[in-house]
Design brief:
single chain; about 110 residues; mainly alpha
Length: about 110
């Protein structure tokens, strides 16, 4: 499955208010799900000395799926193709690498 296929297939699950013209809901969902990923990682650091078990990996994978779904819905609400997001990100990173500015601050370095 590629990004375009996922983006199209995932829309059938968009059951939030005003789906199709509501970018706020998936934005909030994205933030919440990313927070859940961070919580699971935090607890691995706190309780497991940073050792990631197979069980934890499975749970994190589920949360990453939720992050992907909300990211996809946000992109769809804004009329942005995930393929364009991925392609643009790789081009940006490649450009930064070529200019020797992968590390540092600021989006436009």
């Amino acid at each position: 499955m590629n990004f375009a296929e996922y983006q199209e297939a995932s829309r059938i699950f968009s059951r939030y208010p005003d789906a199709g013209k509501n970018y706020i809901y998936p934005t909030l969902g994205l933030a919440g799900e990313a927070g859940e990923v961070a919580e699971k990682i935090k607890k691995i650091l706190r309780d497991k000395s940073g050792e990631v078990s197979d069980e934890a990996r499975i749970e994190i994978r589920k949360e990453l799926g939720d992050v992907l779904w909300y990211l996809t819905q946000l992109a769809s609400e804004l009329g942005i193709a995930l393929d364009d997001v991925a392609d643009g990100n790789l081009k940006k990173l490649h450009d930064r690498m070529e200019r020797g500015v992968l590390q540092g601050n600021g989006d436009n370095r």
